[in-house]
Amino acid sequence: DTGVSQDPRHKITKRGQNVTFRCDPISEHNRLYWYRQTLGQGPEFLTYFQNEAQLEKSRLLSDRFSAERPKGSFSTLEIQRTEQGDSAMYLCASSSPKVGAGTGELFFGEGSRLTVL
Amino acid sequence: AQSVSQHNHHVILSEAASLELGCNYSYGGTVNLFWYVQYPGQHLQLLLKYFSGDPLVKGIKGFEAEFIKSKFSFNLRKPSVQWSDTAEYFCAVNSINSGYALNFGKGTSLLVTP
Fold this sequence. Notes:
The complex is a heterodimer of chains A (117) and B (114). With 117 residues, chain A is mainly β. Chain A is built from no helices and eleven strands. In chain A, strands 2, 4, 5, 6, 9, 10 and 11 form a seven-stranded mixed sheet that branches. Chain A is globular, with a radius of gyration of 14 Å. The termini of chain A are far apart. Chain B has strands at 3-6, 10-14, 19-21, 23-26, 32-38, 45-50, 56-58, 64-68, 73-78, 87-94, 103-104, 108-113. Chain B contains no helices and twelve strands. Chain B is 0% helix and 52% strand. The A-B interface holds A 4, 31, 33, 35, 40-45, 48, 50, 55-56, 91, 93, 95, 100, 102-111 and B 4, 6, 9, 32, 34, 36, 42-46, 49, 51, 90, 92, 94, 96, 98-107.
């Protein structure tokens, strides 16, 4: 499968614990995006990378959230001291200027569902 | 502020009925417009997109959308829905100003009954 892959698919944790999600984008896609989706809502933008550079962060991304893409390939999203309000589906997407000339066709993974008890 | 509004949150249709889902956006400058679909248990997939040119765009599975710049709208249509169209539909907008990060509407849940 050459699509965007995310791991783990499901994570249940207790409040206060740290969790980390991994995203492997489509090979050679240089842009990588993280979104959060809660029930009944559309995906909300969190942050995006172009290669290894984190170019934009939403105000939704509190200090407890950190994302990295150290080698410009896979990315991790860490949530420290989780709260019940962090329960959501965390979506990763990637895109490449070679597809649609940079006009933003995003390819999404299946998401990592977080449940904070 | 940049925003995307979808007017219908839940739609129930019988098979063969016609579908129109509304989407309006509030953005400055040149935008790209998208409709994504999420079938039950599956990931988001691109249904269709508008970048420039003909404002009537056709997507997969018989869907089409019309960009009306004066109304800031990008409504999704399908002449005859099928049971397999049951899904969540999201309108989304991006621009070069946002690094092409997509801004999504809240989605419309479509249920097609046999």
